[in-house]
Design a protein that fits this description.
Shape: globular
Radius of gyration: 24 Å
Structural class: mainly alpha
Strand order of the largest sheet: 1-2-3
Number of domains: 2
Helix content: 55-70%
Distance between the termini: 60 Å
Number of helices: 17
Length: about 425
């Protein structure tokens, strides 16, 4: 009798547990709850969707899937949960309503419309930079060859800017074309993988600076941007992070991260997914660029490949250095915190000299990070103009809008690295 009661209690407990877990796996989009318990496993963007369970995911869905008809169809196919429950709103609901109105006006005024002429200019620019570097390296003087390495490095970095925008499907606005452009530019220019980049970068956008969620914080053992992101306290980590402000650009960005991406992380993704298109462009980058250096210099293929790696070293510094200036010194979001989309964008990113065309060019228009995080599928060349309107919106609702200068951004980035390194040393040594 007692055994039967116990067994019955266990069954009831299991039923309640399973039922609760299913109920908990729901998400709120456009005024409707959707059951995502089964969909989580097959979500194309991975488990980042778990971060929005029981939350209002309207903005993140709208901004990350703005041009995807497939995403809309998938959403419509999910089971609907009839509930009067409302998601927790931690911000001023009137502000969020006003934000939606502003976004709609931006859309009506064409700010989300890609420009074919601008996209063409960006591709022609890449071709010209590559041709110029190839000519420079053909000259006899070692000075010109070293300058060629720098220019080739800039070429790789600017391929990074283009692939980033194509990955957001805002370069041409044509999803399939943007997919090919991304794979071509990141494969040929950076010898890496577009899908791998997307899987990491989309998590960053969905949960910017959130501990345990944002991949840009999960950077150990190479570098540590915040003391709460510590994953190990080995002797090597203690020694290395102590000097990370000095090693970040020349060693961490240029060597460790770049080589880790080129020879391990991204090839593994290509092979695992059997991504033949990405594999083609990545191998083409390795082989053709080595061949060009060989033909222009007369060096052996091995010697030429080492020169190519020198170019990738410069690309790593250029790319990862500038990526770090927009977020890494900002506060982090705790795992139990759930900021709104507007708060994620304004409180945990910065805009850098948005009205300076030179800075915009150097940073591939990613100096408008707040705007970019609010509207990731907005063509980036349109974002400097939107930043002026964002300043008005932020002032109206008394919101933080972090705007700093280019050199100030570098100072804050390196200062933070030094501070975190010293904090780590103080705690663990």
């Amino acid at each position: 009798m007692c055994e039967n009661r116990c067994e019955s209690h266990i069954k009831i407990y299991c039923f309640i547990t399973i039922y609760s877990s299913v109920i908990m796996s729901k998400i709120y989009i456009e005024g409707q709850w959707y059951d995502i318990a089964e969909f989580i496993k097959r979500h194309p963007g991975g488990n980042i969707i778990k971060s929005y369970i029981d939350q209002d995911a309207t903005s993140v869905f709208r901004e990350m899937h703005y041009r995807s008809k497939r995403a809309t169809k998938v959403l419509q196919s999910l089971p609907i949960i009839e509930s009067t429950e409302k998601p927790l709103v931690e911000s001023n609901p009137n502000m969020l309503i006003d934000f939606d109105r502003w976004r709609f006006t931006l859309q009506e005024r064409g700010f989300f419309r890609p420009s074919k002429s601008h996209a063409t200019y960006r591709i022609i620019e890449l071709i010209c930079i590559f041709a110029f570097a190839s000519w420079l390296i053909s000259l006899d003087a070692i000075t010109y060859k070293l300058l060629a390495v720098f220019v080739y490095g800039i070429f790789g970095g600017r391929c990074g800017w283009v692939q980033h925008e194509a990955g957001h499907r805002s370069f041409t606005g044509e999803l399939k074309l943007d997919d090919i452009i991304q794979k071509a530019t990141i494969g040929f220019g950076l010898l890496t993988s577009g899908p791998m980049w997307n899987s990491m970068h989309n998590k960053h956008h969905a949960t910017t600076q959130k501990l345990g969620h944002d991949m840009d914080l999960d950077t150990m053992p190479f570098v540590l941007f915040h003391p709460q992101a510590i994953r190990s306290n080995s002797f090597v980590s203690q020694w290395w992070l102590r000097f990370q402000a000095w090693t970040f650009l020349p060693i961490t960005s240029g060597i460790f991260v770049m080589l880790f991406w080129i020879y391990y992380l991204h090839p593994r993704k290509i092979i695992r997914d059997k991504d033949y298109v990405q594999g083609f462009f990545t191998l083409l980058g390795h082989i053709y660029r080595t061949y060009v250096i060989h033909k222009m210099t007369g060096y052996s293929y091995l010697h030429s490949y080492l020169w190519l790696m020198s170019c990738m070293y410069v690309s790593g510094i250029y790319l990862f250095g500038h990526f770090s200036t927009s977020h890494t010194f900002m506060p982090v979001v705790q795992q139990n915190e759930n900021p709104t989309w507007v708060e994620y964008s304004l409180n945990y990113t910065v805009d850098i000299d948005t009205q300076n065309p030179v800075v915009s060019w150097i940073m591939g228009y990613l100096n408008c990070q707040c705007v970019h995080h609010l509207f990731p599928q907005m063509p980036q060349f349109r974002q400097p103009e939107v930043s002026r309107e964002l300043a008005v919106f932020a002032k109206k609702w008394n919101l933080n809008y972090n705007q700093i200068g280019y050199f100030e951004a570098w100072y804050l980035t390196l200062r933070n690295l030094n501070h975190v390194g010293n904090t780590f040393e103080h705690v663990y040594i």
